[in-house]
């Protein structure tokens, strides 16, 4: 990716030594052999095909026979710096990406995501809070890390909170129906988080006063190809980088000084290797262990205290090239434990486990004047299992009150473990008997897909079309449910003048019900929830048009969009405290977004203004959930010598038309400020203040969302070696 452009970056990986990754991959295949023979056979065949060595010169020679230019070979095939279809989308859409350079640092990666005018915080707060894209959220948007999709069985959707925010240097946002390239989970769009390669070793120390957050990190980089007397034909020569991070935080506070249950502890390790001459172009792996993560909610602490005692992730990816094709294998092992204390009532505990995997192979060809891309994909989930238990709290003379729970919490070191809170800290008051211990979800799924797109430029007009055929089988509760879906897109961009362009984009998308929606049956913080095996697949059509202007100092884009969804899946109450997933007839989300960047050449000042208006209704004209309030953001940067100042003014409009499970929101204006301070060539400093004016406002319209953090001051130092 270059400049300020956005890309999906599904192939931008670098990591662990080849021998290690080879061993990990074959361990994964052995494991999969006990789960699904078809998956094991396909992945084994894929790896055996991609691991024989071949030189880059042979690859370039073969690609040139297909009419590709040398630049295409370097960027797409050999180095695989971006996905094969990036050029297709870039031909018909104005695309953007976002970095951390103008963000006042907080505790979450979401602080970077919300720079996009179409992304808003959604649901309740804390480390695993999620976002919405153009009013789509939960399982309707796809989160990726360097191209690896992150799945979750929580209704709130997948969260990237297990990734240290300082690791993410750039975020790509894909709004609208994107199923053609990314499958079922991207009916509403996607975000791709990118971990950049450091070019030198450095030590990072960060402090945040609100919540006494601490972060310590180390990044390393080694390039054996630059070492004297290195045999460049050696299979293991190339570049290797790694990252280590430790973070922890206590409870934060809102603007009124009230506690927000946002404490956590996180340890993470990342390693990536890019061989110099090998079929393997890049391999990486990440492990993250998160413990005692608090869920910030308005229920805390009187009605409910929800903690995630354990949240672990191990994922990775290996990218390879052979002949004129690129290929990838990825995996993701995850576990999330949840403990919910309802004072004076009971403790609910659950443990969710899953092993996700996938592979793909694709290539590029020229057919006449058309550039054609194709890809075959395999993706599956195995061992998706949720175990639940409930323990009633009974008193010998009195019940455990919220005040007693809070008192016990204050006596614990970090006030993070619900067992310490409600059981170990109150042994004389509480007698407990397991009410039940059951498996509420035990399911799996596997899918195969073929993707094809073609693009061409006719003088001032560029056009592109694409399609996806997707087959999926879901298994659970003794049932096998198979679905075949087709999606596609077409788009065009026309140069009206040297400075003006107009674009149109039409795409269809689908979303198969998640395993939770189909097969789950258990207790959640919202009550008893029942899955529905009769659910239909959501179908959607997205239409958007845009106009953009560009000159030497100004780049501005405005987009109008409308997306209609049929068989919209929602969770409704069928009796008191009992909910079930059902299909609604349809829903429509309409909106407008804009972005304007003003950066004159050699000017010390640059500005960015962005915003969005979004509206969503069902077929009866009722407001649907998760539609964000209108928002507008002004970002300013000013350079004085080596010091760079920045500020963000965010206006969030009021929201009075709300859906069930939501509350009205008042309008609010917040201010973030900060500065980057390079002390010398080896020490870089940074200071920032979030919510500078200490505004009190809810993080989202969810009726259980807590207030946002009050004024927070962050200091950070990076020492280069």
UniProtKB/TrEMBL annotation:
Domain TonB-dependent receptor plug per the UniProt entry, residue ranges: 105-190
Chief location category: membrane
Its membrane topology: Multi-pass membrane protein
Subcellular location: Cell outer membrane
InterPro entries tied to this protein: Beta-barrel_TonB, Beta-barrel_TonB_sf, Plug_dom, Plug_dom_sf, TonB-dep_rcpt-like
Family per record: Belongs to the TonB-dependent receptor family. Hemoglobin/haptoglobin binding protein subfamily.
Name this protein carries in UniProt: TonB-dependent receptor
Organism: Alteromonas genovensis
Lineage, broadest ranks: Bacteria, Pseudomonadati, Pseudomonadota, Gammaproteobacteria, Alteromonadales
């Amino acid at each position: 990716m270059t400049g300020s452009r956005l890309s999906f970056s599904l192939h931008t990986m670098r990591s662990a030594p080849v021998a290690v990754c080879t061993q990990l991959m074959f361990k994964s295949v052995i494991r999969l052999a006990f789960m699904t023979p078809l998956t094991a056979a396909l992945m084994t065949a894929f790896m055996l095909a991609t691991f024989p060595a071949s030189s880059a010169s042979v690859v370039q020679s073969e690609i040139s026979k297909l009419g590709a230019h040398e630049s295409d070979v370097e960027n797409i095939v050999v180095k695989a710096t971006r996905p094969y279809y990036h050029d297709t989308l870039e031909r018909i859409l104005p695309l953007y990406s976002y970095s951390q350079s103008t963000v006042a640092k907080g505790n979450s990666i979401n602080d970077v995501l919300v720079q996009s005018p179409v992304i808003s915080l959604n649901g309740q707060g804390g480390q695993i809070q999620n976002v919405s894209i153009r009013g789509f959220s939960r399982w309707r948007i796809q989160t990726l890390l360097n191209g690896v999709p992150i799945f979750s069985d929580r209704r709130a959707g997948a969260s990237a909170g297990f990734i240290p925010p300082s690791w993410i240097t750039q975020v790509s946002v894909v709004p609208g129906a994107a199923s053609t390239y990314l499958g079922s989970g991207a009916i509403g769009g996607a975000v791709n988080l990118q971990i950049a390669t450091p070019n030198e070793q450095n030590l990072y120390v960060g402090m945040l006063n609100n919540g006494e957050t601490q972060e310590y990190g180390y990044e390393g980089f080694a390039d054996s190809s630059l070492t004297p007397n290195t045999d460049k034909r050696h299979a293991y020569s190339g570049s290797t980088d790694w990252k280590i991070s430790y973070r922890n935080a206590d409870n934060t506070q809102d603007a009124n000084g009230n506690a927000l249950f946002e404490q956590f502890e996180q340890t993470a390790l990342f390693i990536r290797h890019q061989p110099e001459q090998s079929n393997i172009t890049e391999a990486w792996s990440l492990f993250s262990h998160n413990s005692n993560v608090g869920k910030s909610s308005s229920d805390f602490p009187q009605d409910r205290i929800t903690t995630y005692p354990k949240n672990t992730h191990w994922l990775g990816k290996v990218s390879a090239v052979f002949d004129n094709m690129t290929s990838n294998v990825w995996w993701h092992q995850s576990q999330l434990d949840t403990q919910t204390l309802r004072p004076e009532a009971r403790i609910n505990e659950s443990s969710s486990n899953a092993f996700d995997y996938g592979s793909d192979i694709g290539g590029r060809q020229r057919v006449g004047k058309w550039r054609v891309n194709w890809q075959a994909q395999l993706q599956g989930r195995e061992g998706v299992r949720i175990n639940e238990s409930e323990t009633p709290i009974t008193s010998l003379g009195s019940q455990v009150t919220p005040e007693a729970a809070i008192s016990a919490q204050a006596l614990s070191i970090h006030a993070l473990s619900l067992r310490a809170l409600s059981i170990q800290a109150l042994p004389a008051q509480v007698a407990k008997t397991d009410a039940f211990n059951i498996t509420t979800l035990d399911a799996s799924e596997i899918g195969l897909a073929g993707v094809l797109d073609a693009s061409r430029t006719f003088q001032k007009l560029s056009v592109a079309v694409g399609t996806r055929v997707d087959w999926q089988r879901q298994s659970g509760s003794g049932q096998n449910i198979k679905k075949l879906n087709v999606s596609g897109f077409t788009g065009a961009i026309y140069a009206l003048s040297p400075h003006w362009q107009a674009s149109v984009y039409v795409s269809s998308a689908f979303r198969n019900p998640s395993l939770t929606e189909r097969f789950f049956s258990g207790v959640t913080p919202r009550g008893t929830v029942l899955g529905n095996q009769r659910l239909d697949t959501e179908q959607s059509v997205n239409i958007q048009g845009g106009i953009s202007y560009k000159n030497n100092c100004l780049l501005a884009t405005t987009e109008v969009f409308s997306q209609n969804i049929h068989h919209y899946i929602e969770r409704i109450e069928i009796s008191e405290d009992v909910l079930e997933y059902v299909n609604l007839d349809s829903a429509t989300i309409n909106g407008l977004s804009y972005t304007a960047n003003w950066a004159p050449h050699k000017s010390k000042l640059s500005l960015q203004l962005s915003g969005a208006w979004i509206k969503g209704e069902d077929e009866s004209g009722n407001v649907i959930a998760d539609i964000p309030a209108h928002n507008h953001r002004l970002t300013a940067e000013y350079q004085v010598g080596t010091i760079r100042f920045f500020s963000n003014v965010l206006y969030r409009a009021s929201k009075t038309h709300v859906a069930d499970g939501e509350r009205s929101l008042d309008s609010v204006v917040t201010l973030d400020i900060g500065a980057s301070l390079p002390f010398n060539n080896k020490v870089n400093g940074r200071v920032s203040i979030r919510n500078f004016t200490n505004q009190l406002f809810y993080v989202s319209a969810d009726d259980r969302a807590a207030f946002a953090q009050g004024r927070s001051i962050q200091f950070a130092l990076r020492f280069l070696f």
